[in-house]
Design brief:
- The structure is a single chain.
- With 199 residues, the chain is mainly alpha-helical.
- The protein folds into 2 domains: 4-87, no CATH class; 111-188, no CATH class.
- Helices cover 56% and strands 0% of the residues.
- It is extended.
- The chain starts with a helix and ends in an 11-residue tail after the last helix.
């Protein structure tokens, strides 16, 4: 059983995360504006820093602190991008069928195939979640003579996310050209992972 001193750290982390969840719930109701959301998120991040900048004697706290330090840049992404889930449970359930299929067939034959398969799976799932026709999106990509962004990427980052230039240049899906080999086509496929996901 943890001592009161050892238990204070996980309780403080729990309180902080619960407050972040309550803050998330206030935004859709209009109880906090985009600027207020950004300011409150910054304050939560500032409160987390001193919690992790400590030396822990309890091994359980050491493991927890190590995990939180590793995930620290992403802990409040759901506040920077309103509409995102606070945990990855939804994403884990979304890729469950692909994970089962991968185990069934044993993986891809080439490294390029292994890279392109999750990209296409992500496009298909995103289209399904947004109620869009994946076939139409992929046909538009294949017919384009220049790199394009599919219509599943938000036009603008969320209100409290960093300024667009901090994301770096956007990646685009490069269209297939006639006469290209399968492998060269696979190498041309890129995702726009730097853009804040849509709700």
């Amino acid at each position: 059983m943890a001592s009161p001193a050892a238990a204070s750290f996980p309780r403080a982390v729990q309180t902080l995360l619960q407050q972040s969840l309550r803050l998330r719930g206030r935004y859709p109701r209009g109880a906090v504006c985009p600027h207020g959301l950004a300011v409150a998120t910054g304050r939560l991040k500032a409160r987390l820093d001193p919690l992790l900048d400590r030396h822990f004697r309890c091994r359980d706290n050491q493991r927890l602190a190590k995990h939180l330090r590793h995930e620290q840049p992403h802990l409040f992404t759901f506040l920077r991008c309103p509409g995102l889930q606070a945990t990855n449970n939804f994403a884990e359930r979304a890729i469950r069928l692909m994970a089962i299929a991968r185990k069934t067939w044993g993986g891809n034959r080439t490294a390029n195939g292994a890279r392109i398969q999750p990209i296409l799976a992500s496009v298909l799932r995103t289209c399904w979640q947004q109620g869009k026709n994946a076939f139409d999106q992929l046909v538009k990509w294949l017919r384009s003579a220049r790199p394009i962004l599919l219509e599943i990427i938000p036009a603008e980052p969320s209100p409290s996310s960093p300024r667009p230039e901090t994301f770096g240049p956007p990646h685009r899906l490069r269209p297939m050209t006639h006469g290209t080999s399968k492998n060269s086509t696979e190498r041309n496929v890129q995702t726009n992972a730097d853009v804040c996901p849509a709700a």
